[in-house]
Amino acid sequence: AGCEKEPSSYMWIYILLGNMLRGIGETPITPLGISYLDDFAKEENVPVYVACLHTIAMLGPMFGFLLGSLCAKLYVDIGFVDPGSITITPQDSRWVGAWWLGFLIGGATNFLSAIPFCFLPKSLKKPEEANNEKTSCGLLEKKGATRKKLTPENPKSRKWSVMLKGKYFCMSLKKVLSNRMYFTFLCCSLLQFSGFIGFLTYKPKYMEQQYGQSTSKSNLLIGITSLPPVGIGIFLGGFIMKKYKMGIIGATKFSFTMSFLAYAISFLHFFVGCENYAVAGMTVSYE
């Protein structure tokens, strides 16, 4: 009874709030960044720029796994205990790595990398051949000018009323989701990411259990082998779209072909596996 003790630490709340704030800060980068590129870049260069954006987004988790591998080699209480007094190694099942160190390093790096965003201009010089009315910025400017002519009322009060009612947001959401091509693409992306996240989440544990690898080495191998090919594939996809100047239909056919090939190759995972470990009392008898 003396060994049983209820957990009394509430540190998990700080981890929860930290991840929530990180998500709020990171989410606008991709949608708003793509809109920024689409508005102020040449039309034929947009696929490459978007591919570069997503490729960099894949390099982040790769470096995260490498950093996690390094932190997992360090004992969780590093800096608070004498390293010479630690009698267990990372291969021991009781070993707990310095998981918290990655949050500090990642948080500091995120803060420093966010500073240059403060110096980005609100708008850039548009390419000469680009039509201002086709960009989202041009459409908003035109729409705003029309509203000023029709409604000379206070724009601030109108803005707050629109935000509170959410009428235009619901109408826009309904219009987007009623687009069959976009909705199909949304469902396809949902399935792809669901499979990829599950693969990425449980593969390190699988390597630990089946191949007897430490947590540090499993993270290192995942970071080196799994994520770089995805980043290279995203970049090559954008480059191919730029080279052959694909439209919506061409891009859809290209996406379908690549997705089908990826599915066919991933199907081979069913033929790869290892036998379970012999565990006394569970899979084999104690004798």
Automatic annotation (TrEMBL):
Location(s) in or outside the cell: Cell membrane; Membrane
Keyword Disulfide bond tagged: yes
Alphabetized GO MF terms: bile acid transmembrane transporter activity; sodium-independent organic anion transmembrane transporter activity
Membrane topology: Multi-pass membrane protein
GO biological process terms held by the UniProt record: monoatomic ion transport; sodium-independent organic anion transport
Keyword tags: Disulfide bond, Ion transport, Membrane, Transmembrane, Transmembrane helix, Transport
Family annotation (Pfam families): OATP (PF03137)
Identification of the protein by name: Solute carrier organic anion transporter family member
Cited InterPro entries: MFS_trans_sf, OATP
Keyword Ion transport found: yes
Main location: membrane
Signal sequence bounds: none
Record family assignment: Belongs to the organo anion transporter (TC 2.A.60) family.
Cellular component terms (Gene Ontology): basolateral plasma membrane
Residues passing through the membrane, by range: 12-34, 46-76, 96-120, 181-200, 220-241, 253-272
